[in-house]
Amino acid sequence: MTHEMLPTEPRCRTAPDERCGGFTLLEILGVLAVIAILGVFVAQSAIVRMRDEARRSEHLSLVNMSQALRDAVPRQRGLPAAVGLSDLVALELQIPPNRAEETPQGHRRRFLLDPALRLGTNINLTAPYTQSAAGSLQPVSPRGMIVSCLARDVPSDLNFDTVWDLAKGTVPAGMNVDAEDFFVQRLDLRGVFHRLILNNVDRDHVGLYAIDGFGLQWVEVGTRREAWFFHGTTVTLYYANGDLQAREVLMEDTSYVHEHGQWGRQVIYGGRPAAGSFGELVEAFLNAPPPSDPKFGANQQAVIDEFYEYMWTYAIWAMGSPPAVAQFEKGGTTSDTQVPPFRILNDCDARMAAFTNNLID
Questions:
Q1: Are 222 and 164 in contact (CB under 8 A)?
Q2: How far is it, in rounded angstroms, from Cα 182 to Cα 195?
Q3: pLDDT at position 167, please?
Q4: What is the 3-state secondary structure (H, E, C) of 10-66?
Q5: Strands 193-200 and 254-259: what pairing?
Q6: Which of 16, 87, 162, 238 has the fewest other C-beta atoms within 10 Å?
Q7: Contact 117, 127 (CB under 8 A)
């Protein structure tokens, strides 16, 4: 028997616009168009994020640089000219000089000092300034700036006052850049200087002192010195005989008074009349270097205080303490006949002897 093969029917028949497995060219083109559009948005978002990060990074860099200058200037005991500020920043932050001079985009920053800045012992002097034992007159306009731009080099002919006074969100005339890409970090250096006053009211001795590692200086009798020094400056004070009295570090405006051969923070007696021969002996005793190892912390002042009380009480006892005590009355041995000045004198005498012995033994 003969079997005839019948033609096989196609499994599916589709119209041109109907799907039969896979994607049509039109669908693929549509997907690619959507991907392209999303890619544009993603790229734009990434660019915005990168630009915002660059701006944030530049702002933080300038803040760090200005703080580095505030730290370095007093520590170096000097303020360089404007052209040397970037090198000082690089040294302080331990970075290559070009990282201080330029933005990461390669655009040049500008370090500026106020043209009105005056430092030193002459009103006409300005930066560079290096501190000496003489210090400075009161600093005038100790201001500086770091100016940068992410889009271009900062011009070299900027007017200091104009840039200092710029409102936020504005740029100098002639700089056609986005205001968000322009940065001004202002630097006020007034806080790195402290006023030091040395006033000598002593009638007989010059006031000896030293500044940092410089040699011995002095303030003449009846005169004063006033100057400004960097934060952290060491002030060494000496007794009239040249022995070390104290060493302090300037952390704020400070004044010292030299009186009776030594320095203090305030006037004790002021411009009193000459002490006389006995007073001079007392002053010499007080100003003498203390013993190296006195007992029980005894010192010259304790002996003088006890002697003063002894003499004061002796005067009261000698004059009597009317109406209860007669002149030089000694009293008896019982509690109801004791004379207070006499008892105080006995106690003062014992304490004075003890202080003196503890001082010299």
A1: no
A2: 36
A3: 94
A4: CCCCCCCCCCCCCCCHHHHHHHHHHHHHHHHHHHHHHHHHHHHHHHHHHHHHHHHHH
A5: parallel
A6: 16
A7: yes
- Mean local confidence (pLDDT), 233-256: 95
CB 217 within 8 A of CB 242: no
What was the pLDDT predicted at 257?
95
Predicted pLDDT at 137: 96
Does position 11 have pLDDT exceeding 70, yes or no? no
230-266 in b/e form (b: 16+ CB < 10 A) is bbebebbbbbbeeeebeeeebeeebebbbbbbbbeee
Q: Binning pLDDT at 50, 70 and 90, where does residue 322 land? A: low
Q: What tokens were used for 340? A: 């207070």
Q: Residue 351 corresponds to which tokens in the numbers above?
A: 């304490």
pLDDT digits (tens, 9 = 90+) for 188-242: 999 999 999 999 999 889 999 999 989 999 999 999 999 999 999 999 999 999 9
pLDDT exceeds cutoff 60 at 320: yes
Backbone phi, then psi, for 273, in 5-degree steps? -60, 165
Nearest CA among 234, 240, 231 for reference residue 212: 234
* Span 114-123, pLDDT tens digits: 999 999 999 9
Please report, as a single letter, which amino acid is at residue 115: P
